[in-house]
């Protein structure tokens, strides 16, 4: 089951039904997410906290606990602590899919409804999965790169972390390049960090005298990549393509920045969609099990104004 949802659509869909929830119908949803260690997760934390307030107002008997963790080990411990509080549902964005699968399985074994956000588990034990379209992000990115380069050129790729969603993005990207003369001449992990991506790009710039474009699938990394190119004074690189929809990137697109001609959406507000759906399943008995995948929209100068949110933290 694949559905295209946005946070506003989900909120509107369940607002009327949620208003009828009885104050005596007390339930607890735990939300376990990474700490705001970069821009995208900062957006996740912001939207989770805002949605927690909205849901508690909508469902009088609901308590929402938002817990951030700096790493996978801390998140595993947090899941154990949250479970002791008698939670009815868990919304979790794992630091690392492999490291968190067993801790999440233990929570599910206690009869807790599990919603996984963004970073898919290798063993899909969850009841509900909410994410952006990771293969779509790779496919849309490849199509843009091919068109922008006229079907020919040498590019470098900066990957995220060695987890499922990175594999989905990169595999779809590579598949999308087939049939063209666009060649990936180097690829390394940048850990979805602007500092790490900056260092990786410095290495690429030293190794490769000619690079036509960079795909780094993440806007935080794109910031680091752009800075490395600027410091090196390289003029051969035509553009950098990131992803997620960071407001700074969208503003550059709106302003016609040639080095940032496009972006591919992967919104951190997906955590709010996941929380909405989970609460609706608990209170309104709606059939929310399955997978809800948001669209991987290409943001260009023509539509950038529709995706620019100046008050957002990301």
How is this structure best described in words?
The chain is of the alpha/beta class and about 325 residues long. It is built from 10 helices and 12 strands. The protein has helices at about 5-20, 40-60, 70-85, 95-110, 135-150, 165-175, 195-205, 220-230, 245-255, 270-285; strands at about 25-35, 60-70, 90, 115, 130, 150-160, 180-190, 215, 240, 265, 290-295, 300. Helix 7 (about 195-205) crosses helix 8. Mean pLDDT is about 90; it is low at about 1-25.
Provide a quick synopsis of the model:
This protein is of the alpha/beta class. It has ten helices and twelve strands.
Structural class: alpha/beta
* Proportion of strand residues: 15-25%
Overall number of strands? 12
Could you give a short account of the major beta sheet? 6 strands, parallel
N- and C-termini, Cα separation: 29 Å
Mean pLDDT comes to 91
Gyration radius, rounded: 20 Å
With strands numbered from the N-terminus, the spatial order across the biggest sheet is: 2-1-3-4-5-11
Helix content estimate: 40-55%
């Amino acid at each position: 089951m694949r559905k295209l949802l946005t946070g506003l659509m989900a909120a509107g869909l369940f607002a009327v039904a949620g208003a009828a929830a009885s104050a005596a119908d007390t339930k607890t949803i735990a939300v376990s997410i990474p700490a705001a260690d970069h821009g995208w997760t900062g957006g996740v934390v912001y939207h989770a906290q805002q949605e927690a307030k909205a849901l508690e107002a909508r469902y009088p008997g609901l308590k929402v606990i938002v817990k951030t963790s700096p790493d996978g080990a801390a998140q595993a411990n947090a899941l154990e602590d949250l479970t002791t509080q008698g939670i009815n549902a868990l919304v979790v964005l794992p630091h690392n899919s492999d490291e968190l699968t067993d801790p999440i399985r233990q929570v599910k074994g206690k009869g807790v409804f599990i919603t996984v956000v963004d970073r898919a588990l290798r063993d899909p034990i969850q009841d509900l999965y909410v994410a952006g379209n990771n293969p779509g992000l790779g496919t849309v990115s490849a199509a843009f790169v091919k068109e922008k380069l006229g079907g020919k050129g040498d590019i470098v790729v900066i990957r995220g972390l060695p987890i499922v969603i990175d594999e989905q993005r990169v595999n779809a990207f590579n598949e999308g390049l087939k049939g063209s003369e666009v060649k990936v001449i180097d690829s390394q992990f940048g850990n979805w960090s602007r500092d790490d991506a900056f260092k990786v790009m410095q290495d690429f710039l030293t190794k490769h005298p000619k690079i036509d474009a960079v795909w780094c699938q993440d806007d935080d990394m794109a910031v680091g990549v752009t800075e490395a190119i600027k410091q090196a004074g390289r003029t051969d690189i035509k553009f950098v393509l990131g992803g997620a929809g960071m407001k700074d990137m969208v503003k550059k697109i709106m302003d016609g920045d040639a080095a940032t001609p496009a972006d591919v959406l992967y919104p951190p507000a997906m955590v709010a969609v996941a929380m909405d759906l989970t609460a609706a399943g608990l209170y309104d008995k709606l059939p929310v099990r399955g997978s809800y995948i948001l669209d991987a929209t290409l943001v260009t100068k023509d539509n950038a104004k529709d995706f620019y949110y100046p008050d957002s933290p990301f």
